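Convert to structure. Protein one:
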Amino acid sequence: MPSTEPSAEPTQEPSAGPTREETDVARRRRRAQFLRELAEARELRDRVQPRRAKAARLRHAMRMRTFRW
């Protein structure tokens, strides 16, 4: 009769994979790529919807003026 408990899947040891520095470098590279794509998408949206972009800039300016340090 099969057991109802889930079987434990093998996990990789941290020492078996790449070093921490390599994973940090890869994470930073992926993050930089994501941020570039996000900025590009934001610029495209601003070009396509200039009225909405202007309203967003005005809202941001108002938030920055009323922000207390």
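Protein two, convert as well:
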Amino acid sequence: MAIPSPVILNQLGPVVGARLAVHPSRPTVWEHEPGRAPWDLPTGVDVLLTRPLIGWDAAPSAPPHGWGDGLRWIQSASTGMDFYPPWLLEGRRTVTCARGVSAEAIADYVMTAILAFEKRWDAIRLRGPEDWRRETLGSLSGKRLGLVGFGAIGRAVAERARAFGLVVGAVRRSGWAQPEPGVDPFERLEDLAAASDHLVLALPLTATTHGLIGAGLLAHAKPGLHLVNVARGALLDQDGLLAALDSGRIAGATLDVTDPEPLPTGHPFYRHPAIRLTPHVSWSSPDVDRRLADRVLANLDAYVRGEPLRDVVDADTGY
């Protein structure tokens, strides 16, 4: 059933707001008030456009009485839904995410991390003539890249990695019903870790993936492994990673995410020579707001026509 003029609460900022203002459906748009709880909806709202890190971490364990009455569609600016309370996915409303919006930016970050590791980018930087020396640099060609998760991010990483001569393997939750060109299918994460020179975590955080990369898995990883995490910090046993680095089993880690974020003052990740820590920025790019707005407006077009929306979240799996 078509929705001729939706009532929208926009918590995504001015770029999306400007696009909503000229949408042909002439929506009524409420802009988010700073300091107001993101679940505190004005009366009559049927569309909520929201994002993490605006107060959802303080959401009550159960929805407030009458929450979401009349709400038909929720669009998240993120791919992962772990920032939100579980009750956001409950009910008969449709929830969609921004799957793939930042995939290219994240894939660029991953390749930067791998190149910096193999080419020893920090070690060869000269600060004076006393640093001048010959070094043997690594190569990407023929090395194995393992992808833990093969959604939009995994696909974008694989495309770039093959161009550099990396051999790509992957594990995925849904299995391998048919071959993926240029990607070696792995059924077991343990086998992928044991075969990979670079292991990239690119999967959602759910109850079943929490702590997936533990001390046991790292102990059996290929010696010299470089681990890259661009997904969620809680996928990884951080104490187990430290032990694996200190033992020399793991050669390095590039972490754009941690648990918690930020890590507290004095955490060993800040000073560990084998860890490159960045502040959860792999998703960012100059055009990310435009790309998000394009996705939101395409879904709004479908919504007002009564057509299926893109990137609907499965309430059972949480992504």
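Helices lie at 14-21, 103-118, 152-163, 189-195, 215-219, 238-247, 288-305. The mean pLDDT is 95.
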